[in-house]
Amino acid sequence: YDSEVQAETGLLIDPYFSGTKIAWILDNVPGTRARAEAGELAFGTVDSFLIWHLTGGRVHATDVTNASRTLLYRLGLGGDGGWTESMSTLFRVPLNMLPSVKPNAAAFGECDAALFGVQLPILSSVGDQQSALVGQGCLAPGMAKITYGTGAFLVANSGAEKPHSKNRLLGTVGYEAAGTGAMALEGSIFNAGTVVKWLRDDLGLIDSAADSEAMAAGLKGNGGVYMVPAFTGLGAPHWNAEARGTITGLTRAATAAHLVRAGLESVAYQTRDLLDAFEADGVEISELRVDGGMVGNDWLMQFLADVCACPIVRPDYQEMTALGAAALAAVQLGWIDGAGWRARNVKGTRFEPQMEEATR
After folding, report:
1. Do the Cβ atoms of 163 and 271 come closer than 8 Å?
2. Structural domain that includes position 326
3. Are residues 97 and 207 both part of a single domain?
4. What CA–CA distances, in Å, run from 280 to 73, 130, 138, 161, 276?
5. How confident is the model at residue 321 (pLDDT cuts 50, 70, 90)?
6. Which residues pair with 350 in a beta bridge?
7. Residue 329 and residue 122: Cα distance in Å, rounded?
């Protein structure tokens, strides 16, 4: 069913997404299927769960970006998107469980006055990676951002047309607000910041994440040491849940610094895998905007630019997910529009590729 599911939803069949989880609950928790079919159970992603409780149980709603990550939503903007009978049938999830779907900038209801003393309006709801896309101002086709946290997520604006990846990238709604919107392609790296955490907490090779920069920069090269950090399998474009991590090239000359550098380099190599997949799908990325906990490492950002042969742009302000959600609320209030948001002057640091092609 992979091709059928991808054509309809933009996603691949994987336990990462909600539809498979709901199906498991309905099949394995006694009584849940009968209650769901009787209209006694509701499904929600984190956003709809929060909206339900913030509104005192008056609103069961989600937004287009979160809906498009469930395996149950027909990928599209405006009237082209919606919960789909075919996926409901395939995964045996009753449609009456699902929340209503709104644009990202919309009136989602008001908070119960008992919570904050006043009925505060809920004006935006958006998935975290799509929110960072908006926060970074990636509102035109080909503009892309990658967020480096525990994992890493590269999202590129692909315009108004429904994306069809032939390289195992995910199609998703990028954002929808004020009658406009964009689709997006996404590639996921399962292990990025977890590599540094492993080096620090489990191997004890560094005392803090900041130590990794000095150790990597202090070497003239990687000494032929490479790491594949498949601690929980490999994400896009491989999607191999059974893959496991490996370190190669070890000799007696290898030191703790070589292992630390190999861990940092692995993040850049995985990013290059994603960029190659995006390019093969016809999405040309001329620069990559970055955010997240790892991007304060100047050595890694320069190595990333070198390996990817792509300029890396790091804004001074890093909380792009929160900024994107706030921007969408401002759109709903009429305070800003998309053109103004995209054109704003953002201060930051630009890392240009310096590595020779033969070395790359």
Report:
1. no
2. 127-360
3. no
4. 26, 22, 20, 17, 6
5. very high
6. 313
7. 8
Instruction: Using pLDDT thresholds of 50, 70 and 90, give the confidence band for residue 292.
Output: very high
Which residues contact residue 127 at a Cβ distance below 8 angstroms, ignoring those fewer than 6 apart?
47, 63, 65, 66, 69, 172
pLDDT at 79 > cutoff 90: no
**257 shares its domain with 185:** yes
- Same domain flag for 67 and 100: yes
Q: Which one, of 75, 39, 64, 68, lies nearest residue 175 by Cα? A: 64
Query: For the chain, where are the alpha helices, taking DSSP H only?
Result: 2-9, 18-28, 32-37, 46-54, 64-67, 85-91, 113-116, 128-135, 193-197, 211-217, 256-280, 298-308, 320-333, 338-343
Structure tokens at 293: 């906990």
CB atoms within 10 A of CB 187: 28
Give the pLDDT of residue 91.
95
| Domain count for the chain | 2
Distance from C-alpha of 213 to C-alpha of 88, rounded to nearest angstrom: 48
Among candidate residues 2, 9, 17, 4, the one with its CA nearest the CA of residue 162: 9
pLDDT at 342 over 90: no
Q: E strand or H helix at 171, and its extent?
A: strand 170-177
**346 and 314 in one domain?**
yes
Band of pLDDT at residue 233, cut at 50, 70 and 90: very high
Choose one of 63, 93, 116: the last residue of a domain: 116
pLDDT one-digit tens code per residue, 254-286: 999 999 999 999 999 999 999 999 999 999 899
pLDDT at 359: 83
Q: Are 175 and 126 in contact (CB under 8 A)?
A: yes
Q: At what angle do helices 320-333 and 128-135 cross, to 10 degrees?
A: 80
Residue 122 domain-assigned? Answer: no
Do 111 and 153 lie in one domain? The reply is: no
Between vectors from CA 140 to CA 138 and to CA 142, what angle results, nearest 5°?
Answer: 85
CATH code where residue 34 lies: 3.30.420.40
- Sign for the CA dihedral angle at 180, 186, 188, 192 comes to negative
- Domain membership of residue 121 (yes or no) is no
Domain end point (choices 69, 86, 116): 116
